[in-house]
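call fold(seq) -> tokens
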Amino acid sequence: MLTGFFDLPWWGYVLATLALTHITIASVTIFLHRHQAHRALDLHPIPSHFFRFWLWLTTGQVTKEWASIHRKHHAKCESTDDPHSPQILGIRKVLLQGYELYKKESRNQETLTRYGHGTPDDWLERNLYTKHPTLGVVLMLLIDLLLFGPIGLTIWAVQMLWIPVTAAGIINGAGHYWGYRNYQCADASTNLIPWGIVIGGEELHNNHHAYATSAKLSTKPYEFDIGWMYIRTLQACGLAQAKKLPPQVRLDKRKTVCDAATLQAVITNRYEVLSKYAKTLKGTYREEITNMKLAVPDLRKVDMKRIKHWLHLDANDLNEQEKLKLSLVIQTSPRLNVAYTLRQELAAIWQRSTATKEQLVKDLEDWCHRAEHSGIEALQQFSIRLRCYA
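ret:
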């Protein structure tokens, strides 16, 4: 029977396949995503070129194309211009045809011109990696056959499918559809699970959309980002340097009034602020909606699950029909009306680009004053905590 250079038991081939695909995942998340697309870290030429070469072998990926499409995804997220939004195109299409969507967008020269700045443009990129993307994957097939024999064909097939399925399908699809959210971003991004191991940390997709230029994707104590562990290892060897990390919330419980430091901290941690607002008011919303359904029989026909979701969104994220339905519900409850209105006004504070810092501090202090005199205990507690941001 023909064998390759390595004659392994069945489980040995499984482990070899997992190891090879994991190197590819690490290359995507560290090199393509965090280093190239977002400039969240600097890489030494040695690991930088290794990742680029490995991706040429295992995916035929052109760095400029990948970075351009991903940057456009962030710039146009959940809009009709987003190359792969399941909110627009449908979850089934993105899950099953994610790679086709990527290839379609890679042929859009306007995308590459507008979003492809700063990607590699050396002799190897122009004359080998970009010019002959399929040569690498053919070479990988020959290497797999040489190392593992006929089963190398299966290993190669898994390698070729790994990124289209995990990145183009699961992350771009499920990562904007299912999961939990730490931060109330303007998009629909989610964290799939808190342990980013299988897809290199990319499972923490909501964290990434909240702080896109951070080299670290985990933000909570219970979350783990294996890609960050690899970056720390490279950093310890002098081969990488993280440029940005997620901001850390700091509270000074002695503070009783808002100042410039409070304003800056609130703006910096605005996604965490809105997430905390949603969690703090969750019980109030649930109690109020339950009472409303008992008191107003017509509301029993309303999908209150959607209403509760809309209460946590910016008004601009709702269409006219959704705004009308929400308005009919909150008009029935003064407490819901106050909580929703204050949520919109809080988000508007950091969107006022023309206001002076002094005016924004005054607006924030005024917001806290109104929250504390709203008669809603959850709002009072939230406001007291908000004043402590430092």
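Residues 307 and 326 are 6 Å apart (CA to CA).
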